[in-house]
Amino acid sequence: MAFVKAGRADVITRPCPPTKRALAWHSMDPRPLPRPNALTAPYWEACRRGELTVQRCRSCGRRVHLPEPVCPHCGGTDLPYEAVSGHGRVHTFSVVHRAFLPGFAIPYVIAWIDLEEGVRAFGGIVGDIAPDDVRIGLPVRVRFDDLPGFGHIPNWRPA
Amino acid sequence: MQGFSGKAAVAGVGMTDLSRHSGRTELQLAVEAARHAIDEAGQRPDAILGYHLGDSAPVIHVARELRIELGWHNEIYGGGTQCASILGDAAMLIDAGLARTVLVYRALNGRSGRRMNTLSLKLGEGVEEQFTHPYGLAGPVQQFALAAQRYLHHTGLTEEHLCAVVRGSRTHAVANPRALRREVEDYWASPMVASPLRRADCCQETDGACALVITSADRAPAAPRVHAVVRGGGPGASAMDRTDDVTRIFSSHVAGPLFAAAGMTPADVDVALLYDAYSWLVPRQLEDFGLCARADLAATLHDGLATVNPHGGLLSEGYVHGLNNVAEAVRQLRGDGVNQVPGAEVALCTGFGGSYGSAAILVRPGTGR
């Protein structure tokens, strides 16, 4: 697998506001925004409603995340999004002290979360915990935070 | 045994000075390294292979500068995974009669030109970046820091052991005049980049070039032979959303096929040139290639490994996308390596790109291997 240059169609960096609101924030928050596509739009729409959803294959019943157009387990192509509990544990994490994207205040914590439902989600570890206290196995639950110019995106706080 | 096994030999290696600001074009760097390798080999290439990420000198420009009458030539788009397997590409051309002598090179201004710190692994449709960039994940250091954290958790190793890997690399590099880092600095003073990886746990961003000249074994009877080469990969650190083991890297996929192709066991390896883009990749590869059991890693790393990256590796010599480690494998088998491993007859060299990559075994001729 090759390394590929970052900065592509599925992520946009301001200035490139998708809404009028983004214009107001543009100079204040240069963090990259997700740009939903047909596959991921239902996920982000649910986030805006404060709901965490992941795909579930209608053929084999297994959950799939990150989103896929075709079920990696059985090849099924009907994978509607279903709400999940929003509870999980930290699978692994890193405390980032050198950001390579604009708009992030260091240090910040990134993590893969094992959801109760058996899939793995990504996000930041936020809330009432110091970065150096984050541990593998830490129970967490989802918290939706506003990403100015986009809407709510899921983060993870100690449960 | 692979069809090309023993048919091709690395007759010459060449490198430019390694620096952080070459002030030269990739073409100038590539041509200088190639001239050194060609001089050493005493053979004129009729074929050229290069690998790059859109940041190297084009093959046909190198051919023109070197006035090579060009036969087979190709550019492989790829990074660290290529550095070992390109030996196989060259050996196949020679074994198939498509080329007599193949020039292989990598040139880059990896510090003063295009840096790799924001490159990212991309699989499938690439939608994963919607799910990671908004949280500030970008680039290989952070990606492989996530794997490293879990690796320490799995193995019980600690930052003390990462420190030991770096200290071992720097200690080796003291004797290497090519190395960018030749002093054993205070590891704990090195700034954290993405825990558990400090700057010292990451390889050197480097300007420079490395070239190899590979020819048929009968044209270079004393030169190290290309014995076995494999390339592969699968689930693991390249796609952490869907793998049982985010710490799994290429070596766990290719080690078995490599030894099977070589007709060897780990005990046959005299010197290992492991792709050490990050410190934790050393213990992970030691395990995967059967060079050290997990239970013995802590003690082994603490004691230091004279037979692993004796020149200091990518962590200290520099990062010519792994090809400089392959060059050192060749030197070790010739007996003119840095901190030469006495009597080295079998060398392992590896190419990392997350859970995809390659590995090769080179052997000194006339040893019955």
Record the SSE blueprint.
The complex is a heterodimer of chains A (159) and B (369).
Chain A: E1 3-4, E2 11-12, H1 20-25, E3 33-34, H2 41-48, E4 53-56, E5 63-64, E6 81-83, E7 87-96, E8 108-115, E9 120-124, E10 139-147, E11 151-158
Antiparallel strand pairs in A: 2-3, 4-5, 4-6, 7-8, 7-10, 8-9, 10-11
Chain B: E1 8-15, H1 26-41, E2 47-52, H2 59-66, E3 73-77, H3 82-95, E4 101-109, E5 120-121, H4 128-132, H5 140-155, H6 159-173, E6 192-194, E7 197-198, E8 207-216, E9 225-233, H7 250-262, E10 271-273, H8 281-288, H9 297-303, H10 313-316, H11 323-334, E11 346-353, E12 356-363
Domain Thiolase C-terminal (chain B): 241-363
Protein name (chain B): Lipid-transfer protein
Organism (chain B): Actinoallomurus spadix
Strand order of the largest sheet of chain B: 1-8-4-2-3
Assembly annotation = heterodimer
Low-confidence stretches of chain A: 1-10, 12-26
Helix fraction bin of chain B: 25-40%
The beta-strand count of chain B equals 12
How much strand content do the residues of chain B show? 15-25%
Q: Kindly, what is the distance between the CA atoms of the first and last residues of chain A, rounded to a whole number of angstroms?
A: 36 Å
With strands numbered from the N-terminus, the spatial order across the biggest sheet of chain A is 9-8-7-10-11
Q: Quick one: biggest sheet of chain B? A: 5 strands, mixed
What CATH architecture of chain B would you give?
3-Layer(aba) Sandwich
Rounded average pLDDT of chain B: 96
Using only C-alpha atoms, the radius of gyration of chain B works out to 19 Å
Largest interface: A-B, 52 and 56 residues
Beta-strand content bin of chain A: 25-35%
Structural class label of chain B:
alpha/beta
What's the short story on this structure?
The complex is a heterodimer of chains A (159) and B (369). With 159 residues, chain A is mostly beta strands.
Q: What does this protein look like?
A:
The complex is a heterodimer of chains A (159) and B (369). Chain A is mostly beta strands and 159 residues long. Chain A contains two helices and eleven strands. In chain A, strand 8 (108-115) and strand 9 (120-124) form a beta hairpin. The termini of chain A are far apart. Residues 1-10 and 12-26 of chain A have low confidence and may be disordered. Chain B has a single domain (8-115, 202-363), classed as Peroxisomal Thiolase, Chain A, domain 1 (3-Layer(aba) Sandwich). Chain B is 32% helix and 20% strand. Chain B is built from eleven helices and twelve strands. Chain B has a five-stranded mixed β-sheet, with helices on both faces. In chain B, strand 11 and strand 12 form a beta hairpin. The two termini of chain B are 12 Å apart. The mean pLDDT of chain B is 96. Chains A and B meet through strand 1, strand 3, strand 7, strand 8 and strand 9 of A and strand 5, helix 4, helix 5 and strand 6 of B. Chain A: Residues 44-79 form the ChsH2 rubredoxin-like zinc ribbon domain.
